[in-house]
Amino acid sequence: MPEAGRPLLEVRGLSRDFDVSRPWLNRVIEGASRQILRAVDGVSFTINRGETLSLVGESGCGKSTVARLICGLYTPTSGSILFDGKDLAKISDRTEMLAMRRRFQMIFQDPYASLNPRWRVEKIIAEPIRSHRLIDDERALHKRVGELLGDVGLSPLDGEKYPHEFSGGQRQRISIARALSSNPEFLVCDEPTSALDVSVQAQILNLMKDLQREHGLTYLFISHNLAVVAHISNRVGVMYLGRIVEIADTKTLFGRPLHPYTQMLASAIPDITMSGKSRTPVAGEVPNPLDPPRGCSFNPRCPHARDKCREVRPELLPFEGAQVACHGIHEGWIPIVPARAAA
Ligand SMILES: Nc1ncnc2c1ncn2[C@@H]1O[C@H](COP(=O)(O)OP(=O)(O)O)[C@@H](O)[C@H]1O
Ligand SMILES: [Mg+2]
Questions:
Q1: Alpha-carbon distance 264 to 286, whole Å?
Q2: Which ligand is nearest to the CA of 40?
Q3: 9-103+184-310+317-342 belongs to which homologous superfamily?
Q4: Which residue in 6, 58, 152, 175 has the fewest CB atoms around it within 10 Å?
């Protein structure tokens, strides 16, 4: 039974390393050393029932790895993932794991790659229902798929068609219908609108918001674009090189971005009250994760960096209603600029 007040998802100190070494023989002959890439480095967060937490950050910062760890597509190198109070790594019983898996689903960035091109839409959407044996009767299953298509704004007749007969936005609607078909409580959405045109993005985001309200869903929403998450999130976590550098509720984060990286992302959002063009472009590049900088990993790009930032890695600590990992903010030598006043 779900317990009131307990987070639906709790991630504690989650890390994931990838061995990206050259093959063994090359290492022996060329004397190359083993190379370990830490894609996710001690990430912790909670998501309450019915809430949306977004993770934002530039490409390569570990967002998809977090998503895949939560969905069980990768195993953690360390740390734990608790769903409704249960540690997923401690479930050894296959039946219990299957029952757990039904409760959360994932939506991917590329709706074409994630839909089997040789299957009719009806079969695609019915697949999770079949594999979890939720409906046995074929007629009832057909009816249920029709309802799901209706829920995502498509026609029940679309079940007869193949994925290539749809536009990108419609294909993402099919992915959403499939994800919803097992009646999940929790959806991990990895850049669900990033491959779509801007106008279609808004429609899909609105659909996701409506579905959340109707079905009481909880979302982990992932995007490289801070502007996209503004209207869908209750809280936002900003990731940089495998770590969360700032996390706060949406209003706080947008109204008063603290970390210099968050400030940089926020100032790149096109300001609709002005000309609509980007204000300050995001400068610099993400460092090589195989050779991360000492101290704060953002220090090479940070306009405020001091010696301490190049030596000591800042911890994620509470700061006035947010959590932020930045020496300058905690020690008071980085100016805090309200986002809109900065325009
Ligand atoms: N299967 C993998 N093997 C090796 N390296 C990987 C693998 N998956 C991701 N990485 C690396 O981990 C880092 C984070 O990747 P990813 O989680 O995909 O970031 P994002 O989704 O934020 O773009 C990147 O440096 C990426 O190259
Ligand atoms: Mg990704």
A1: 13
A2: 1
A3: P-loop containing nucleotide triphosphate hydrolases (3.40.50.300)
A4: 6
Q: What is the rounded average pLDDT of the residues 220-243? A: 94
User: Would you state the pLDDT for residue 281?
Assistant: 66
- 75 Cα: distance to centroid of ligand 2 (angstroms): 17
> Where exactly are the structural domains of the chain?
9-103+184-310+317-342
Phi, psi of 235 (to 5 degrees): -135, 155
Residue 242 Cα: closest atom of ligand 1: 14
Which residue has better confidence, 112 or 164?
164
Residue whose Cα lies nearest atom 1 of ligand 1: it is: 18
- pTM tops 0.85, yes or no: yes
As a whole number, mean pLDDT of residues 37-58 equals 97
Distance, CA 66 to ligand 2 centroid (Å)?
A: 9
Query: Residue 279: what pLDDT?
Result: 58
Q: From residue 154, give the alpha-carbon distance in Å to each of 150, 161, 177.
A: 5, 12, 10
Residue 76 has pLDDT above 50, yes or no: yes
Q: What share of the chain in percent tops pLDDT 90? A: 77
pLDDT at 106 over 50: yes
